[in-house]
Design brief:
Blueprint (H helix, E strand, L loop, with lengths): L26 H20 L12 H11 L16 H13 L3 H27 L2 H12 L2 H6 L6 H19 L5 H17 L4 H19 L23 H18 L2 H4 L3 H17 L21 E7 L4 E7 L3 H20 L3 H14 L1 H4 L11 H15 L4 H18 L9 E2 H7 L7
Helix pairs in contact: 1-4, 2-3, 3-4, 4-5, 4-7, 4-16, 5-16, 7-8, 8-10, 9-14, 13-14, 13-16, 14-16
Length: 444
């Protein structure tokens, strides 16, 4: 199945707004589908989310910080100053609404996780201009165990993921437009909010700046392909009305303002206070040496799922256990490596815009971890790239009959269901069942 990419969109000769690309489903139907995806995903993520009633993994850092924001803990010293405040502010808002309990701690994650799945659906629409392909990408994102586990924990990464993916979706819709300024501004605002959850939200924003910079540079050099095609990732006439000040406003100033605004509830309008908060985040997150951790893993091992992160392992009886292991669905993430190779081939051989954009954002969210001096790293840092692999898989599968794509989605879903006893604490399993799921010694 071949569909038009964002790069295939063209303006009318008279300069009117872009026509809707052939095959793009009606906006109303897509909006209703997105709402349905959000509602179903949100409900699924909420089931049993209050189990266990105690902290799991890094919740021990973020929930107390949220309590401090509400005055439920001493004001000094400031708790968890090494991360921006937005995700913790959302946890605090949930505690204020639902009370100080496990459901309230984790409820924001279920909303953000559902938004992340919706964002993948929107990315799929922008890339493939086809409802089935977009739905398949959303389902693969949902049954990727890594997103499911993160969305049910009171941590920061799911917030950075959701807002980053929404920003990527806005950029993808803008990619083929003659006048992308409004969508660029929306993407910039979403990226700024993502960074306000965790500084790793900066990676997709830098990726966007890199893509825009490369295209404008090629245009400045008057570069053109000898045999231009409508699906090319680069076109000399792309964004003719986009100026340098538009880029600075939409992708630098607006993200910065949205990011800094999240510090106002903590520091008011104190510029020195907000500036000092940035200094502390940089010092604590980037330059401070941190001791090793049992579940740490190096970035080259993440795509291979060599070392999971155990969020919880509790005895629930003589032979029963409650376990939450962040691992990722091997039936999604291992085949995704082949799909990414297909994307790389299509960028070189076919100059495919969807393949180029998928690969750019995957690598843009992944490779910066190789450059950071921080020695302590975990598999869940791979979460954005792992979620984006669902788009790579659909890109590869669309060249097969449609039944093959849905058969693969069904197989991936079965893998997800098999892993539920180690993904959701309220289900539980036996030691024998747990041992069967731990296929490799490095997983234990």
């Amino acid at each position: 199945m071949h569909t038009k990419s964002p790069a295939a969109r063209r303006d009318d000769d008279d300069g009117a707004d872009e026509a809707v690309p052939e095959g793009v489903p009606a906006v109303r139907r897509c909006a209703l589908t997105a709402l349905l995806i959000f509602a179903i995903t949100h409900v699924l993520l909420m089931v049993g989310v209050a189990a266990p009633s105690k902290f799991v993994f890094d919740e021990v850092h973020y929930v107390p910080a949220a309590r401090q924001m509400l005055g439920l803990a001493p004001a000094a010293p400031q708790l968890n100053p090494m991360h921006p405040p937005l995700a913790k502010e959302l946890i605090a808002l949930s505690i204020r609404t639902f009370g100080d309990n496990a459901f309230a701690w984790r409820y924001p994650g279920t909303v953000l996780g559902a938004l992340a799945v919706v964002a993948i659906y929107l990315c799929g629409l922008a890339l493939f201009a086809a409802q089935p392909a977009a739905l398949a990408a959303a389902l693969l994102a949902l049954v990727n165990q890594m997103l499911f586990v993160q969305a049910r924990a009171a941590m920061l990464d799911i917030g950075a993921l959701a807002f980053s993916l929404l920003g990527i979706a806005a950029f993808l819709f803008a990619y083929g437009q003659r006048r992308p300024q409004l969508l660029f501004a929306l993407a910039g605002a979403l990226f700024g909010v993502a960074v306000a959850c965790k500084w790793s939200g900066l990676f997709p924003l830098l990726t966007v700046l890199g893509i825009v910079g490369v295209i404008k540079l090629l245009q400045h050099w008057q570069t053109a392909f000898g045999d231009p095609q409508p699906t090319d990732w680069y076109r000399p006439e792309q964004w003719p009305e986009l100026r340098g000040w538009h880029i600075l406003l939409c992708l630098v100033a607006i993200p910065a303002l949205c990011y800094l605004a999240t510090f106002v509830p903590l520091h008011g309008m104190s510029i020195p206070g907000i500036f000092d908060a940035q200094r502390r985040i940089f010092a604590d997150s980037i330059t401070t040496a941190i001791a090793g951790h049992t579940y740490m893993s190096a970035w080259p091992t993440w795509p291979l799922l060599m070392r999971p992160v155990w969020f919880l392992f509790d005895k629930a009886g003589d032979s029963d256990i409650a376990a939450v292991v962040l691992l990722g669905n091997p039936l999604v993430l291992w085949p995704a490596l082949v799909a990414l190779a297909v994307c790389a081939r299509d960028v070189v051989a076919a100059r495919s815009a969807p393949a180029f954009l998928i690969l750019a954002f995957y690598l843009g969210c992944y490779l910066p971890w190789a450059l950071l001096p921080r020695a302590l790293s975990f598999l869940y840092y791979y979460l954005p790239s792992a979620t984006l692999t669902s788009l790579a898989l659909v890109h590869a599968l669309t060249r097969l009959p449609r039944w093959a794509m849905w058969a693969y989605v069904a197989v991936a879903t079965i893998g997800f269901l098999v892993m539920l006893p180690i993904s959701a604490a309220f289900i539980g399993t036996t030691m024998q069942g747990f041992s069967r799921l731990m296929l490799f010694q490095g997983w234990i």
